[in-house]
Design brief:
Structural class: mainly alpha
Low-confidence stretches: none
Strand content: under 5%
Order of helices and strands: HH
Number of strands: 0
Oligomer: single chain
Radius of gyration: 11 Å
Shape: flat
Helix content: 55-70%
Largest sheet: none
Distance between the termini: 12 Å
C-alpha cells in the first residue's frame, strides 16, 4: 500500500506542477471523473 500512496502523490504532484491541456484543474467535475477513472483503481490493485 505504501507504493500505491507514493504513486498517487507523484501523479497528483505532476498535475500541480505541470499544466495539462487535457485535464482542467479548475473544472471540479472533470477532476473528479479523472480521479475516479485513474486514481481510485489504484486503491484496489490486483493481487
Amino acid at each position: 500500500m505504501d507504493l500505491v500512496a507514493e504513486m498517487m502523490v507523484r501523479v497528483s504532484t505532476s498535475f500541480l506542477l505541470t499544466p495539462s491541456r487535457l485535464v482542467d484543474l479548475d473544472d471540479e467535475q472533470q477532476v473528479r471523473r479523472t480521479a475516479r477513472k485513474f486514481l481510485l483503481p489504484m486503491l484496489d490493485p490486483p493481487t
